[in-house]
Specification:
By secondary structure, this protein is of the alpha+beta class. It is built from 5 helices and 10 strands, in the order αααββββββββββαα.
Length: 300
Amino acid sequence: MTFLSRLGVLAAAFLFTFGPSMAGQAVATPQDYQLGLQDAVTPVMERIHSFHSILLVIITVITLFVLVLMLWVMFRFSEKRNPNPSKTTHNVTLELAWTVIPVLILIGIAFPSFRLLYFADQVQSADITVKAIGRQWYWSYEYPDHGNFTFDSYIVADEDLEPGQPRLLTADNALVLPVDTNIRILVTASDVLHNFAMPQFGIKLDAVPGRNNETWAYVPAEYAGQTFYGQCSELCGTGHAYMPIMVHMVSKAEFAAWTEKAREEYARNDEPAGEPAGQPEETQETVKVAAASAAVTTSE
C-alpha cells in the first residue's frame, strides 16, 4: 500500500469516527477535531464562508499547477535529460503571461472581497445599538437605547467554572442580545488597542482609544438561548489571554424583560459631564469652588 493510499484510509477513518459526532453537537462552541471555520450564524459570516470556499478552490488550482510545473521542470530539464542547457534569457510571451495572469486572478478576487467588506461595514436600519469598550483586561458593555446602563464583564477563574463552561471563554456577565434584530455594535477602548472578535458572527474589529468603530450583526430566531464565545484578538498586555467575549442570544420578549431588570441592577451611564458620579451635591459644589479659585490664582 502506497503512502497516499494509507493517507486516504486514515482520512476516511477520521471522518467516519468524528464526523457524525461533530454533526450532532451544538453550533455555539468549537469542538475538538473540528475542521474548517466555525458554523456561520449571521449573514456576514455566511458570506465569509462562501468567499472562503471560492478562495480555497482558487488556491488549490494554483498550488496543483505550480506543483505539476515544478515536477515537469525537474524531470524534463535535469542534467541527465538536458546536458546542454539553453542560453535563452528572455521570452516576452512567457514573461507577459506570468505577469498578466496573476494580476487578472487578483482582480477577480478583489471584487467579491470589496463587496464583502462593504456588506460587513454597512449597518442597515439598526434596531438597537450596543457599545463594547475594551479595557485592561476586561470588557465593558453599554446599552444607550435601553436606559444607557453599563456593566463590566470579567473572565471566570478556572476554579469557579461550572460543568459545561469552556475555560478561558466564560465571562461572569454576558453581552445579552435579541435574535431576529439588526444590531449595531460600536467598539472602542479606554487604554490600549484591543480587538472585539466573535468568530461565528464574522466580527473581528479593532477597539481603538478615542475612536468608535462600527459593525453589525443579525442572528436568526433559531439561535435563541444559545451562547457564543469570542476573545480579544489584539495583543494588549499581560492579561490579553483573559478577555473573553460571551454573547447570550435571547428572544425579543426575554430581552425586553432583561433590560428592565438590568436598568435597576447595573449603574447608569448618563451622569452629566464634569460632575463625578455618586458624589453628593455638597462635594460637587466644593469641587467647583476649588476649580474656580485655582483658575483665578492662575490668571493673577
